[in-house]
Amino acid sequence: MKLFGKKQTRNREPTAKEGLQMLTTWQERYYAWDGKLYESDIVRACIRPKVKAIGKLVGKHIRDDPAGGLKVNPDARIRFLLEEPNPYMTGQMLQEKAANQLCLNNNAFILIIRDENGLPVQLYPVPCVYAEAVYDAGGHLYLKFQYRNGKSGTFAYEDIIHLRQDFNTDDVFGESPAKAISQMMDVIGTIDQGIIKAIKNSGIIRWLLKFNSSMRPEDIKKNVKSFVDDYLAIESETFGAAGVDSKAEAVRIEPKDYVPNAAQTDRTIERIQSFFNTNKKIVQSNYTEDEWTAYYEAEIEPVVVQMHGTYTVGLFTRKERGFGNKIVFEANNLQCASLTTKLAFQAMVDRGAMTPNEWRETMNMAPLVGGDEPIRRLDTQVVNLVETALKNMNTENCHATADIIKGILAVGKEGADGEDRH
């Protein structure tokens, strides 16, 4: 089955190439931990909060046209594309899959499938193990992907939504985290293997019987078995006390297995968490409101800003962007806020900065009919009425306008007093 449907591959002679090896596939230097970061419980725990947060982003089509005003999701085609990007996954699933690739490889690719008119109709994450930048004779950029099944595909760069981190020396791709994290992963693998070997070695020989006279092999085995049955067996009647005559000497052997202490292990894990810009509280969901806000602004918000731009450029032409079309991703970061903070946002609702349904969403409450319309307190409405009256005032109606403004202020004062009493 072709996951991408019709793929418009380009077979042209490249003039230059740049390659990116994905960390999610095996490489020789990573044999100690198979080179698969996602199979590490520490790495998966580090990136999961970021992946889940990006998956919860809600994509919206905004059209901010001075002639037509601000509209949210004016085009049903774009709204369905963001909510249901392809027949196999929802928008949330696609965003999580892309976020996983971004965290593991510092690069994530989303392919835009277009119809015969050039309009985007589907979005697919690209599950590649290798990506290569290819330039044709005209200098146009294409990306050649190699998939896990051994097949490959080449697509124009304008048909790719490309997310990247650690964008430094390479012109196209984000820097691979391989060199930075490989040594730490080797340390974790060595520690785990050492603990396993120490447990296995706990069952080896711990006693040595030295016989002072020559004995046949079968007699040695017989005496050793008798010593084990009499003194080392659980059902022994000697209660752990052993006694031997002058013919043999019992020597206890202490295994010398090295197991790193907990402090060394914790420091290594902390280094990996720092590499992914997280900490123990975030990983274990034991954070406060301020701690999550700091993590969101440092680690998640830059990706959100990047998604705004890459989705907008990929889904809209330059002319469409000129008419105010753009894609934004909203994050309800107030879900983890304290109840006191959520209740304080009631003032935002009174002043029309938030709609009632937006505020109810932070409280995990169902929306209300008509709750998408902003409301204002009476005292704030008075300001608007006074401004309107002043704009329409002239030399002919100045006295009448003054009387109207006095009446408005009197009514507004009574309404405000009534609200305060309630």
Automatic annotation (TrEMBL):
Pfam families: Phage_portal (PF04860)
Protein name: Phage portal protein
InterPro entries: Phage/GTA_portal
Superkingdom as given in the UniProt entry: Bacteria
